[in-house]
Amino acid sequence: MGVWEAAGLMVLSFVLLAKCADYLVEGAIDIARYLNAPPILIGIVIVGLGTTAPELAVSVTAALRDSPEVALGNAVGSVIYDDGLALPMAALFTTTAIAIDRIVLRSAAIFLITVDIVAWYMAFDGTLARVEGGALVGLFVLYLIYSFWEQKRRPRAETEEEAPSRSLWIVALLFAGGLAGVVVSSHFIVEATPVVAMALGLPDVVIGLVVVALGTSIPEVATCIVAARKGQGALAVGNILGADILNICWIAGASALANPLVVPADVVNFMFPWMLAIVLTMLGLMRIGYELNRWKGLVLLALCIAYLIALFVTNPGALAPGIEKGV
Predict the structure, then answer these.
(1) How many angstroms separate the first and last alpha carbons of the chain?
(2) Cβ neighbour number for residue 59 with a 10 Å cutoff
(3) Of 312, 280, 297, 298, nearest in space to 79 by CA
(4) Which residues pair with 99 in a beta bridge?
(5) Cα 207 to Cα 290: distance, rounded to the nearest angstrom
(6) Which of 118, 185, 247, 275 shows the smallest number of beta carbons within 10 Å?
(7) Per-residue pLDDT at 158 exceeds 60
(8) How confident is the model at residue 197 (pLDDT cuts 50, 70, 90)?
(9) Entry pTM
(10) Which contacts qualify for 160-165: CB closer than 8 Å, 24 or more apart?
């Protein structure tokens, strides 16, 4: 695939992605109503599982092809872009401040911080072994069980929603079709993006942490924007919290199960502290007034930009090939 073909494929895929994200959000809203569950929980579990499918496919494939930097960099980098780009887009596109469910945020925050620190500890020596990957996957399963148990304990009146106007079958088809379209369009974007990146001469760590991670985070970005514009900010927040947990537990864990991830320690100890800094900032901002508004989104966006600057500054050779080629 040539560079111009890849660029054209990316444009077409973005158009498909935008439309399918709309269907996905519509279906998720009605699913929340049918299950009488808070949209933030639906975002964490159902939408999160769907929108992280590209990350899972890319990271596991990269691990099996002996590209551990791309596999782990994609998982960790996706958390950074989810919190530093997708979530700020929701905050910037929403018409009113997004209310945050205190109960769901508390449990998700504790679990997210814990698994991030545990994963960093596991990978600190430069290796995420199979047994460690299995432990991360097990932690995710436990979190799912706890989430549904917690939801069943909540009074029904607390989560009452307007009854959906569509039948359950229509809702299921809408959600499944939207999810399939998001995953397929994202797949083509991920296929095309590295072609452009490699033409610019970017190294594996930058392709994993920037190009592939950003490409596979597109479903979350699109879903957040559409959800915010439809007044479903809680769904967007839930999607990001779920995606963050999935990226570390499910995606990094499954990749390590497929093939142990051996990554230079300096790379591990660059990306994990940045990820933790952005995650902690995001959770702290949500804790203030239990809402997400535009100024908080701008803070997260600024952190994401600072991360990108730090990445290129600490990897001076990353831009050199492109400059030498006159790009």
Answers:
(1) 19
(2) 34
(3) 280
(4) 291
(5) 35
(6) 118
(7) no
(8) low
(9) 0.75
(10) 160/36, 161/32, 161/33, 161/36, 162/33, 163/33, 164/29, 164/30, 164/33, 164/34
Query: How many whole angstroms separate alpha carbon 20 and alpha carbon 14?
Result: 10
CB 17 within 8 A of CB 189: yes
- H or E element: which one contains 128? strand 127-128
Work out the average pLDDT over 153-159.
55
CA–CA distance, 117 with 100 (Å, rounded to integer): 24
Per-residue pLDDT at 296: 95
User: Which of 79-83, 89-93, 132-136, 185-189 is predicted least confidently?
Assistant: 185-189
Question: Phi, psi at residue 263, to the nearest 5°?
Answer: -130, 140
More confident residue, 222 or 265: 265
How far is CA 300 from each of CA 81, 228, 304, rounded to the nearest angstrom?
10, 17, 6
Q: Tell me, rounded to whole angstroms, the distance of Cα 68 from its chain centroid.
A: 19
The pLDDT tens digits for 59-113 are: 787 788 787 877 888 888 889 988 998 899 888 888 788 888 888 788 889 999 9
| Other beta carbons within 10 Å of 126 | 15
Query: Which residues, 6 or more positions from 16, have their beta carbon under 8 angstroms from its beta carbon?
Result: 181, 184, 185
Amino acid of residue 24: L
As beta bridge partners, residue 98 has 292
Give the pLDDT score at 322: 32
Work out the number of other CB atoms within 10 angstroms of the CB of residue 263. Answer: 22
Q: What 3-state class would DSSP assign to 99?
A: strand
Query: What mean pLDDT is predicted for residues 108-134?
Result: 93
Single-letter amino acid code for the residue at 140: F
- Give, as one character, the DSSP assignment of residue 288: S
Query: Cα dist. 123→119, 207, 243, 253 in Å?
Result: 6, 20, 20, 11
Q: Token pair of 64, please? A: 């099996």
| Strand, helix or coil for residue 193 | helix
Cβ distance 327 to 136 under 8 Å? no
CA atoms of 319 and 317, how far apart (whole Å): 6
Q: Specify the DSSP class assigned to residue 167.
A: -
